[in-house]
Design a protein that fits this description.
Layout: H1 12-17, E1 23-28, H2 29-35, H3 40-44, E2 50-54, E3 60-64, E4 72-76, E5 79-80, H4 91-96, E6 103-110, H5 114-117, E7 124-130, E8 138-145, E9 148-153, E10 156-160, E11 163-170, E12 177-188, E13 215-228, E14 234-250, H6 258-263, E15 267-279
Parallel strand pairs: 4-7
Antiparallel strand pairs: 1-6, 2-3, 4-5, 6-7, 8-11, 9-10, 11-12, 12-13, 13-14, 14-15
Length: about 280
């Protein structure tokens, strides 16, 4: 009996994950495309055992199998991105800043991995692998806009049109050098507190709903490239500039108690800043 050729394909990262002692999940770029996530945060919180936490200040944390968020190690391209006191609150906010379109794969380790990654990995590890320069010239453009309304009361609505934009260009292989550049803008939506809204009818002049987390715009621009001196020696570099403009409003008074609502001040938090990251 003569049959046609049988082609067997294997994913290197998924094959290596089979030999780890911990439970390991590898989310490929094809998986990310199917999930339609806009940031790494949108993708990983659909995974079993990975939970989003929000503290009193509106900062998002990542809990793996119920462990404290500060015991989840966050890495980008194998390098820890948080240290000192930053890891104790808001480690999930770092993943909100990374656009999903620029990700090659995400590796999630559930359970203690301190023997390999240190004391920060008592709960688990999230390792984000970004896309490197491609060998062939290419241009990628993703654009999206959506419309939604948020009902405060039976007679009052607000509307918003969040937008997402991603542009990437690859030079392809030019001799021993290749490079890519990208830019993106994403809208981070708020997560409203259930059953609380304030407007002129309950004694407060500004109409809003308290948000459990920060919301606003995330913008990224960056370049990366590599130069091959020979088959065994290469130098790789990446420069990334992140800018975020986010805010959060909060009030704890009972919306039905006009006096309490009027007396309690509106608490507003806002962050508008940028950071530049380089790696060689």
């Amino acid at each position: 009996v003569t049959t046609r050729d049988v082609v067997v394909e294997a994913d290197k990262a998924k094959e290596e994950a089979k030999y780890n002692s911990q439970s390991v999940t590898v989310i490929t770029k094809e998986d990310i495309a199917r999930k339609q996530g806009k940031s790494v945060e949108d993708v990983i919180f659909n995974e079993v055992g990975v939970t989003r936490t929000v503290d009193a200040m509106g900062k998002v944390g990542i809990s793996i199998r119920g462990a404290d968020p500060r015991h989840t190690l966050i890495m980008v391209d194998g390098q820890p991105v948080l240290g000192d006191v930053s890891k104790y609150s808001g480690n999930g906010d770092e993943l909100m800043r990374i656009g999903a379109e620029n990700i090659e794969r995400i590796e999630i380790i559930r359970g203690a991995a301190s023997a390999k990654y240190g004391s920060d990995a008592i709960g688990g590890v999230v390792n984000v692998i970004t896309k490197g320069p491609k060998d062939a010239p290419s241009v990628q453009l993703n654009a999206e806009a959506s419309y939604h309304t948020s009902r405060y009361t039976s007679s009052n609505e607000t509307s918003a049109m969040p937008s997402n934009f991603y542009l990437r260009a690859d030079s392809g292989q030019i001799g021993k050098f290749n490079m890519s550049a990208w830019g993106s803008k994403r809208s981070v939506l708020s997560v409203y507190a259930n059953g609380r809204s304030y407007n002129t009818n309950n004694g407060w002049g500004e109409e809003f709903k308290p948000s459990l987390r920060y919301y606003g715009d995330e913008k990224n621009v960056g370049i990366n490239g590599n130069y091959a001196f020979n088959e065994k020696h290469k130098i790789f570099f990446t420069i990334n500039h992140d800018r975020e403009d986010v805010e959060r409003k909060n009030k704890n008074a009972d919306p039905n108690n006009s006096l309490a609502v009027t007396m309690e001040p509106l608490i507003g938090y806002k962050y508008n800043g940028s950071v530049v990251k380089t790696e060689i």
